[in-house]
Write a structure and sequence with these properties.
15 helices; globular
């Protein structure tokens, strides 16, 4: 059980919270090392979604198909083993599928942390993936959170990269279709999920990125799997089922972008991240956001202070540690 004890010492306690093409010429071709093209088969043609653009779950279902599997296995609204939900999003002759199964949640991880040694041992048996990838999960947790005591004053996280991209939006009349677009459920949330999942996928692989994303969504709203929502879960303006379903689609988009950018930049275990590399990487993601929402973005300069801090943080996390298995 030595490895199990080390797992808890590493402190893997919680995880990620994670219209038309704007041409290269419109933004200035010199600003992008890879102008987004929906004809490129290695990147998603589908456009990202924003929760603020959907008023109800019925509106969302007009865009994304939702299929619940084995929902008659129990009369309770809470999911059980064997149940899942399948999301299918078709756009621009491309398809994104995401399946959310019943499984371990972020809350389970916290309960096991605070439980007895025997409970931890049982968890290690039934959820071996978490233990086997404890180092990588701990690194991702640190990258996803501001940890000034570890990395110094002004430490940054994935969320700060999303905020920086949102601040780069070139405002015009169509940038913000409603006040909610500027809220946490608008551009910020979409950019946060896609940017974080892209980087996790590039650094650690798509399997662990998907594992972390599902941990969070199961914990945030378990009824996503059964579709048996309370009235509040359908109507609460700050937290409702649509928000989480949008996250599930955007998580998959982020993973596809992460794989494409990893291959394009030939990023490997030994890659040393610089603010220049991260600027090019994020400018390419911004190009995808422009494609999705019809908004322009100011490109990140190579000496952007947030990017410099994140590049140093990534290098610190990646020193001598092998990538996770895809």
């Amino acid at each position: 059980m030595t490895s199990l004890i080390k797992f808890w010492k590493h402190g893997v306690l919680s995880f990620l919270v994670l219209t038309q093409l704007v041409s290269c010429q419109q933004e200035g071709s010199s600003n992008y090392s890879w102008c987004y093209s929906s004809d490129n088969s290695t990147v998603p043609k589908v456009r990202a979604l924003m929760a603020s653009r959907f008023k109800t779950l019925d509106e969302f279902r007009e865009v994304v198909g939702i299929t619940y599997i084995n929902t008659n296995m129990n009369s309770d609204s809470m999911p059980v083993k064997g149940q899942s939900v399948v999301l299918t999003y078709v756009d621009r002759a491309d398809t994104i599928n995401n399946i959310l199964d019943f499984g371990v949640t972020q809350g389970d991880m916290i309960e096991v942390r605070d439980g007895s040694y025997s409970n931890r041992a049982k968890f290690a048996i039934f959820e071996p993936y978490s233990v086997a990838n404890r180092v990588e999960l701990n690194e991702i947790y640190k990258l996803a959170r501001r940890r000034p005591r570890l990395f110094g004053v002004g430490d940054v996280a994935f969320y700060d990269l999303a905020l920086a991209s949102v601040s780069n939006i070139r405002h015009h009349n169509e940038s913000y279709k409603s006040e909610e677009d500027s809220s946490e459920k608008g551009y910020v949330n979409t950019y946060n999920h896609i940017t974080a999942q892209a980087l996790i996928t590039t650094l650690y692989g798509v399997r662990i990125a998907d594992f972390i994303a599902d941990l969070h969504e199961r914990y945030a709203m378990p009824h996503l799997i059964t579709g048996k929502f309370s009235v509040d879960e359908l109507t609460n303006p700050n937290k409702n089922a649509v928000d989480n379903y949008v996250d599930l689609i955007n998580n998959k988009i982020g993973q596809e972008l992460g794989l494409a950018l990893r291959d394009k930049h030939k990023i490997t275990q030994s890659t040393v991240w610089t603010s220049n590399l991260l600027a090019n990487y994020l400018n390419e993601i911004q190009s995808y956001y422009s494609y999705s929402f019809g908004v322009g973005h100011k490109p990140f300069p190579q000496d952007h202070p947030t990017l410099e801090m994140m590049a140093r943080k990534i290098n610190k996390m990646r020193e001598g540690v092998p990538f996770g298995i895809e």
